[in-house]
TrEMBL record, chain A:
Renumbered residue ranges of the record's region Disordered: 1-24
Lineage start: Eukaryota, Metazoa, Ecdysozoa, Arthropoda, Hexapoda
Localization annotation: Cytoplasm
Any one GO molecular-function label of the UniProt entry: translation initiation factor activity
InterPro entries per UniProt: eIF3l, PCI_dom, TPR-like_helical_dom_sf
Any one GO biological process: formation of cytoplasmic translation initiation complex
One GO CC annotation: eukaryotic 43S preinitiation complex
Family as reported in the entry's similarity comment: Belongs to the eIF-3 subunit L family.
Record key words, sorted: Cytoplasm, Initiation factor, Protein biosynthesis
Assembly mode: Component of the eukaryotic translation initiation factor 3 (eIF-3) complex.
Domain PCI residue range list: 461-673
Name by which UniProt lists this protein: Eukaryotic translation initiation factor 3 subunit L
Role played: Component of the eukaryotic translation initiation factor 3 (eIF-3) complex, which is involved in protein synthesis of a specialized repertoire of mRNAs and, together with other initiation factors, stimulates binding of mRNA and methionyl-tRNAi to the 40S ribosome. The eIF-3 complex specifically targets and initiates translation of a subset of mRNAs involved in cell proliferation.
Predominant place of localization: cytoplasm
From TrEMBL, chain B:
InterPro entries given in the database record: ARM-type_fold, CSN8_PSD8_EIF3K, eIF3k, PCI_dom, Transl_init_fac_sub12_N_euk, WH-like_DNA-bd_sf, WH_DNA-bd_sf
Taxonomic classification: Eukaryota, Metazoa, Ecdysozoa, Arthropoda, Hexapoda
HAMAP family: eIF3k
Identification of the protein by name: Eukaryotic translation initiation factor 3 subunit K
Chief subcellular location: cytoplasm
Function: Component of the eukaryotic translation initiation factor 3 (eIF-3) complex, which is required for several steps in the initiation of protein synthesis. The eIF-3 complex associates with the 40S ribosome and facilitates the recruitment of eIF-1, eIF-1A, eIF-2:GTP:methionyl-tRNAi and eIF-5 to form the 43S pre-initiation complex (43S PIC). The eIF-3 complex stimulates mRNA recruitment to the 43S PIC and scanning of the mRNA for AUG recognition. Component of the eukaryotic translation initiation factor 3 (eIF-3) complex, which is involved in protein synthesis of a specialized repertoire of mRNAs and, together with other initiation factors, stimulates binding of mRNA and methionyl-tRNAi to the 40S ribosome. The eIF-3 complex specifically targets and initiates translation of a subset of mRNAs involved in cell proliferation.
Compartments in which it is found: Cytoplasm
A Gene Ontology cellular-component term: eukaryotic 48S preinitiation complex
Superkingdom to which the source organism belongs: Eukaryota
Keyword list, A-Z: Cytoplasm, Initiation factor, Protein biosynthesis
GO biological process: formation of cytoplasmic translation initiation complex; regulation of translational initiation
Domain PCI, residue spans: 40-201
Length: 698, 214
């Protein structure tokens, strides 16, 4: 409520007399008009503002909206609202559109500054004003000639949903309402109706064709090609997009997390990425959702398909990653964005994310369940009240994969693999029916193994995932956001596999070999074999996950640490490659012999380097390289047991040797061609074809 | 004492408590205990490095050095690489840490002569870790064990850091090798390392479903 004190300075001494409200807005207006005199500068501002909007000069509109308006508010209207519409209208030639926009700002100003919230009439006026605005925009037969800065459009939609929220809260505090207010509310039961709000937001989404646009954009096409007449206009496009975010918020407010997240998934693909507010809203939305799930005393009555639960957890980690990257590109952020980020330093904090994932794991008892499942028991027997519910069980499982990813992004490969204890990657289980989850798991596990110099394990993990993808290729051929992810990850996995096979030659499945023989990979592998360090580095940076700095520095304009984490991990990997630099050369010589005297190999090696001969030194250097060869090719390989970290030292590489005093004895692996598998597959295919032919009726 | 410490740490590591900086002191004491008593717990040490990552103001170079040196003692495992991945980018400026990284680098390349040479130049650092030298010798013996059938005695003594005859005998005995005058017989590698011919085997089970089709 307005306090009468505030208005004394402005000459509104008797304002307090009007409480409680008459419920008649006209009464207030007359009062205002008789007392108020508008400063000249405000008049000028209004005229200029209107002209700019008519002419569509967006950058100037933005300036007036963001800077001048607040400044004038501070100067002239610190203790009072802006002038009423009846006073402003004559100044701007009764410009209908401008008046709607002006009132939008007018009411927003009241909402934000009046303690206790606006009066019911004001709430209703504001609502009808929004109706006018959206009617104008939506009912036009051709796009309306209005251009507003994106910032304003976003705040407009956001404010609309906010005012709805505020109204619903106001209305629910019945005990605090006066009799008059209650009457007003009862007669005016159409305004701020939730169906109205939903209707407006959905209409904006539909009118702009934004969903189709985002879809096309995500698959690399030109959104304009499907935008349609309205959607091509920036006003409609951005309003449509912001309405999606509005819907996300609205659904969350209504506890409809199912819808909220559905909308949310659609909004993650945005040109230029979401704005900081949107990122924060999304974060708080996740918080709401997880709180709802985790703080319940009995399992919540919510059932979602597993595919969805997976995308939910995956998206959560992805948005964290995206936020961290966004935050790190300081040089590209505006001053305002930096300020927002520095004040909002709780959202998307890494500990928060860890906490959520760990809580989901604990709540679902999933670790214990997996343990029992792996030993052949019935997981339900240890699942507990929550863990028996499919929602909790699967969220728990997917959170483990989320942790795998998060730990990998932070360079903690040990924890990454450890988290997956009791999950047997290659076995089909009741948890493994979401393809995207399986593939993502294999990618991160394979990568972590590679960094731990467990090449055999990495090769096994990667090639089995790639084989799976090859067999189910048609599943991922449709262009969608998730499939694009999968296809990118597939390419990354081939790169990782190529790196591992260069460092640790080993035979892999024929059909994988086939792909690697194609020119793209073949050339890269060839270069790496010949010790081209830059090729290793470029393959690695392409295939590695986008690492995060675990503890981002406070944001200062100009600093940029986005690449630091990637650089650090690349450095560690390249150190390893450098240590192994001589091994391919030695391997290529050894391949030619079954026995070879040390001295002879030393001579070969020196000839390769073309330097002056010094037999003793060459011999010593060679001895070191040979020891290094054996050391690097003998790695821990998983054989059995619940943890992927377990294993025994094995030499899995195709070429091996031992030294008997001065003689090297070489053991190579000879692989005969495999025909059986090929024929079996072709036979099955032929049989299938035959069967189909019989079914054709002519 | 050591056992209770181990259990306390294990319970910290099991839950979200592992990210709580308040536990850093306990974990750091645990690291010092490992250096003193020749025990080792990679997971706890990684948790310490992770806490430094999340709280750079709490970074302790001395503890970090001990963790890295302990990782060296667990070669041929790749613990050192795992630790390196978790180091803050800023520690590159720390002289001692750079030295330890260099030690790891030459040890990874199996340039043992160079390694011992370096180690002898920094006794105060390596002596902080009890049994440091013998732990490295174990790694040397591992590499020798997988590489050689027979090896020259002097060569072996040099690889182990220029040890005297008595100590050499001790190591030879420990690994069950055989002294043959100038040569040491390690093992008959013929059995482990031989040319493999991978030929295709088609099991009947694979073909059985096919038979029903034909």
């Amino acid at each position: 409520m307005y306090s009468s004190d505030d208005y004394n300075e402005g000459g509104y001494e008797s304002y307090g007399d009007y409480e409680p409200h008459t419920g008649d807005p006209q009464y207030d207006l007359e009062y205002d008009r008789s007392y108020y005199k508008m400063p000249e500068i405000v008049k000028k501002f209004l005229v200029y503002f209107r002209n700019m909007i008519t002419e569509g000069v967006t950058f100037e509109i933005l300036n007036l909206y963001e800077n001048t308006f607040p400044k004038l508010t501070e100067q002239y209207f610190e203790n009072s609202p802006w002038p009423d519409e009846s006073e402003v209208a004559p100044i701007v030639d009764n410009d209908h559109i401008f008046m709607i926009l002006y009132k939008e700002l007018y009411y927003r100003d009241i909402y934000s500054r009046v303690p206790g919230g606006p009066k019911p009439e004001q709430r209703f006026h504001s609502f009808y004003n929004y109706c006018d605005l959206f009617n104008y925009i939506l009912s036009a037969e051709t796009p309306v000639p209005l251009e507003l800065p994106d910032q304003w459009l976003w705040e407009l939609v956001d404010e609309f949903v906010y005012q709805f929220q505020s109204f619903a809260q106001y209305r629910s505090r019945t005990s605090k309402l006066s009799q008059a207010e209650i009457e007003t509310l009862n007669t005016e039961n159409k305004a701020w109706n939730v169906l109205c709000i939903l209707n407006v937001l959905h209409s904006l989404v539909d009118k702009s064709n934004i969903k189709r646009q985002l879809e096309v954009y995500a698959s690399g096409g030109d959104p304009d090609s499907v935008a349609g007449e309205f959607g091509r206009h920036s006003l409609y496009k951005m309003l449509g997009y912001f309405s999606l975010v509005g819907l996300l918020r609205l659904h969350s407010l209504l506890g409809d997390y199912y819808q909220a997240i559905k909308v949310n998934i659609e909004t993650t693909i945005v040109p230029g990425g979401p704005k900081p507010e949107q990122r924060f809203h999304s974060f708080y939305n996740y918080c709401d959702l997880f709180n709802y799930i985790l703080s319940a005393e009995t399992p919540v009555p919510l059932e979602l398909p597993d595919q969805w639960l997976w995308e939910l957890v995956d998206e959560f980690v992805y948005q964290f990653q995206s936020f961290a990257q966004y935050r790190s590109r300081t040089s590209k952020l505006s001053q305002a964005e930096i300020e927002t980020l520095n004040t909002e330093n709780k959202a998307w904090n890494v500990l928060c994310i860890l906490n959520v994932l760990h809580s989901l794991v604990d709540k679902s008892n999933i670790k214990r369940q997996l343990e029992v499942y792996a030993s052949g028991g019935d997981p339900d027997s240890v699942a507990g009240e929550f863990g028996r519910h499919s929602l909790y069980k699967m969220l728990g499982y997917f959170s483990l994969v989320g942790l795998l990813r998060l730990h990998s992004l932070l360079g903690d490969y040990y924890q990454a693999i450890k988290v997956l204890e009791n999950i047997e990657l290659h076995k089909k289980s009741q948890y493994s029916h979401v393809p995207a989850c399986q593939i993502s798991t294999s990618y991160y596990v394979g990568f972590a193994y590679m960094m731990m110099r467990r090449y055999s394990d990495a090769i096994r993990t990667l090639s089995s995932a790639l084989l799976y993808i090859q067999r189910t290729k048609q599943l991922f051929s449709a262009r969608s956001y998730q499939n694009d992810q999968i296809n990118k990850q597939t390419d990354q996995m081939y790169h990782l596999l190529a790196i591992c096979l260069v460092l640790h030659p080993q035979c892999v499945d024929e059909s994988i070999q086939q792909v690697l023989r194609e020119k793209n990979y073949h050339e890269k592998m060839y270069k790496m074999q010949y010790g081209e360090m830059s090729e290793f580095e470029s393959c690695f940076t392409f295939a590695c996950p986008k690492f995060l700095s675990p503890c981002p520095p406070p944001i200062e304009p100009g600093s940029n640490y986005s690449r630091d984490a990637v650089k650090h991990q690349t450095q560690v990997f390249m150190d390893e490659v450098r240590q192994q630099k001589m091994l391919p050369t030695i391997r290529s010589y050894l391949k030619l012999y079954t026995t070879l005297p040390l001295a002879k190999l030393a001579a070969f090696m020196s000839a390769a380097r073309g330097s002056e001969r010094d037999a003793a030194r060459e011999h010593a250097a060679l001895a070191i390289h040979l020891l290094c060869f054996k050391h690097k090719m003998k790695n821990v390989v998983w054989t059995k047991g619940p943890s992927g970290l377990d294993g025994k030292f094995q030499s899995g590489s195709e070429l091996d040797f031992y030294i008997d005093n001065d003689m090297i004895h070489i053991a190579d692996t000879k692989v005969a061609h495999r025909y059986g598998d090929f024929f079996i597959r072709k036979l099955l295919k032929f049989e299938e074809l035959n069967r189909k032919l019989h079914h054709i009726k002519i | 004492m050591a056992e209770t410490m181990k259990q306390t740490v294990a319970s910290i590591l099991k839950s979200i408590e592992r990210y709580n900086p308040a536990n850093l002191q306990t974990l750091e004491r645990y690291v010092e205990m490992q250096s003193r008593e020749n025990t080792y717990d990679l997971e706890a040490n990684l948790a310490v490095l992770k806490l430094y990552q999340f709280n750079p103001d709490k970074f302790n170079p001395d503890i970090t050095c001990q963790i890295l040196l302990k990782a060296l003692t667990n070669f041929p495992h790749t613990d050192f690489t795992l630790c390196k991945c978790l180091l803050l980018e800023s520690v590159g400026e720390n002289e001692t840490i750079s030295q330890i990284k260099y030690l790891a680098d030459i040890l990874e390349q199996c340039d043992f002569a160079q390694f011992w040479n370096r180690v002898h130049q920094m006794p105060e650092l390596c002596n902080r870790i009890s049994n440091f030298h013998d732990s490295i010798r174990k790694f040397v013996c591992h590499v020798v064990g997988i590489t050689f059938q027979t090896i020259d005695k002097n060569n072996l003594a040099n690889l182990l850091g220029g040890i005297d005859d008595v100590t050499l005998k001790h190591w030879v005995k420990k690994y069950g090798w055989r002294d043959e005058g100038n040569l040491i017989f390690i093992a008959n590698q013929d059995e482990n390392i031989k040319t493999k011919n991978i030929t295709e085997k088609i099991e009947f089970d694979h073909l059985a479903p096919l038979m029903t089709l034909l």
